[in-house]
Write a structure and sequence with these properties.
Layout (H helix, E strand, L loop, with lengths): L9 H9 L5 H19 L2 E4 L1 H16 L12 E4 L26 H9 L3 E5 L33 H8 L5 E5 L6 H7 L2 E4 L20 E5 L2 H11 L29 E5 L10 H16 L3 E5 L7 H16 L18 H12 L2 H14 L5 H24 L2 E5 L15 H5 L6 H6 L2 E9 L5 E8 L4 H15 L14
Parallel strand pairs: 2-3, 2-4, 7-8, 7-9
Antiparallel strand pairs: 1-3, 4-6, 5-6, 5-10, 9-11, 10-11
Amino acid sequence: MTADLWRLPAAELAGAIARREVSAAEVVESHLARIEAVEPEVRAFITPTPELARAQASDVDRRIAAGERLGPLAGVPLALKDILCVDGVRTTAGSRILGEFVPPYDATVVSRLREAGTPIVGKANLDEFAMGSSTENSAFGPSRNPWDTTRVPGGSSGGSAAAVAAAMAPLGIGTDTGGSIRQPAALCGVVGVKPTYGLVSRYGLIAFASSLDQVGPFARTVRDAALLLEAIAGHDPRDSTSIPDPVADLTATIEDGVSGMRIGVARELVGGEGFQAGVTARVREAADRLAALGAEVDEVSVPTFGYALSAYYLIAPAECSSNLARYDGVRYGYRAAGAADVVEMNSRTRAEGFGDEVKRRIMLGTYALSAGYYDAYYGKAQQVRTLVIREFERAYERFDLLLSATSPTTAFKIGERADDPLAMYLSDVCTIPTNLAGAAAISVPCGLAEDGLPVGLQLMGPPLSEATLLRAARAFERDFGFLPAPPLWGEGAP
C-alpha cells in the first residue's frame, strides 16, 4: 500500500495522513520513488528538492502528533513551477541568466504552502521566463507529455502539469499569463485553474508581464484544485495589485450542480479553422452533457476575441521588455566574462543569457514602446483589450459562465512548432481573452480526441467567479468521470 500511495488524489491522501493511517513521510517517500522511476522519461523538474520535502513532511508528522489541526492538504506533495522564489533553493525561471540564482526569501505563495503543510518535491520546468506554449524554450531542455513522451506537455507551466499527470505529485503550482496553466492542463489531461487577477499574490513571482501574470493550481480532481487555490489565495500587502477582500469558500457549494446555471458556448472558440476535429467534438459533447445536467446552454458570438491574440502579443512583450531590463549582468544572475567595458558586458550578458524566444519578445516589446510607435501598436492593443473586457461584460449579462475548448489541438510533437512562432502562439487563442480581462477560468479534462490524447474543456467566468467555475467543473467531472491514466502509469492504474 505504502509504495502505491502516489496513485491517490490529494484529498484522499490528506485524509489518510490526518487520521494517522499513513505518515506524511511515507507519502513523500512514495512520490520521491515515483519521481526516480519516471523523471528520466518526463523531465518535469529543473531542481528536485527531496531533502526539503522530507523536512517538510517530518514537520507535518510532528505537528499532527502534537495534536495540531492542520490544513486540508497537509502532507500532500507538490510540484512548484521554477518561477516562484523559495528561500535557499535555486530558482531559474528556466533561463541561463538565472541559472545559479538562489533567492534569500520565499514568495508569498510558497510561504502559504509551507503554512498549509504541502511538501515541495521539486522546482518544475517551464518555458524561459514563462514565454512559450510547449516548455521547449527552457534552457534546461524540454519536458515531455506523460501520455506520449514524443509530445509536448504544453507551456509555459509544462513541467508542473506533466508532474501531476505522471503522478510524481498530486498537486502542482503554475502561472498563467496567456494560458500557461490551462493549456498544459488540457494537453496533459489534468485540472488547471487561472484565478482572477489579484486573487493570488505575485510577490516573489519572477515577472513576465505584470498586468497579466497570475499564479494558480494543477490537480487531478476539481476538489483538489479548489483546496489548493484556497490555500494560496488571499490578500497580501506586499503585492499592490492584491485584492483586499476575503477569499470566498470555494468548496462550500462545489457539489451543488449546474441546474439553472446559464452557460454560453463561445462559438469562435469551439471550432473552425485551426481546430482539431476531435477537440471540437469532445467540447460539443461536454456542452450537451452540461445541458443534460440542467444548465441552460446556448451559443454566443464573441467576435472581438479574434483580435485578442494580436493584442496580447503587443502588450505582453512590452511588459516583458520592461521587466527583463533588470537582467544586466551587474546586480545578480549570469555575467558574460572578458568584456572590455560595461556596455559590452551588458550586451553580451543578455545575448548569451537569454534564449531566442525571450530575445524575440524583448525586441518586439521594445519596438512597440518606442517613440513614434507607442500609440500605433501598444496604445491600440490596450484599446482592443478594453473591447475584449466589454464583450465579456455583455456576455455575462446573459450567461453565468462561458464555455470553449482550452486548446484548439491536442499535444503536438516536440519540435513540430519550434521554428514557427506564429503556429506556437495560436496554441493560446482560446485562453488569452481571459488574461486580458483579468478574469477567472478553469480547464477540466473532457475526453480523448481521435489521436488518443486528452482534450480540455474551458469554463470562463467574470472576476471572482471561482466558486461558480469550480461548481460547474465539478458537476461535469462527477457526471463524466475521469480519463484513463496515461500509459506511463503502467498496469493497475486507477
